[in-house]
Amino acid sequence: KPVLQINQVHLLFSIPKSVLARRPILQGVVIAGASVHFDENARGEWVIRGFPAIGDIGKKPDELEAKFIDIMHWLLKLPKLTINDIDVGYRSRHNVERLISLHHLKFQNIGDTHQIIGSALLYQALRTTVTVAVRWTGSEVDPLRIKAGVYLYAKNLALSEWWKGLSAYGYSLDQGKIDVAIWAIWDRGVFQQIQSEFNLNGLELTSLS
Question: How much is the pTM?
Fold first, then answer.
């Protein structure tokens, strides 16, 4: 099975700008029906399999990989990228695997201002729907170096998938699900000015005493 699969790619050109410039002016790219896989390497870098890094296009598809940061730099050069119906698998360096279906993802650049808006389905014990919006300014794409406004909404998030066994105040988490909305400022690797709303259901705790 291919490590990178794309069913449809549409290139959108601006007719007025192309006429004035007397050359094709790209307005956006639309990708539909794709399947990609990310891995976290030993250095903590996220890489995508099957996608050629610069200078690597002569390699076999299963030998290709590109760093997430390099892909983000490439995306900054596009006016707009829209992705519909893409399956994303990822595996951490500790062999924790997740599968996400992105229903819609829009990456838009206007000058030095960048915005990502998306909705997705996270496959776990409970199917979790996620909506996210991120906005930042500047040419930096490394999450540890940018300052961005972030909105995240997750519905039906299974706590046991992420924090099973977490202990606090003499209790250990066993089961439960949560609907949560978060507004925050991401500042160079740290969340600040966090506001949130959440609703807990089916919470099960075990006393440690």
Answer: 0.74
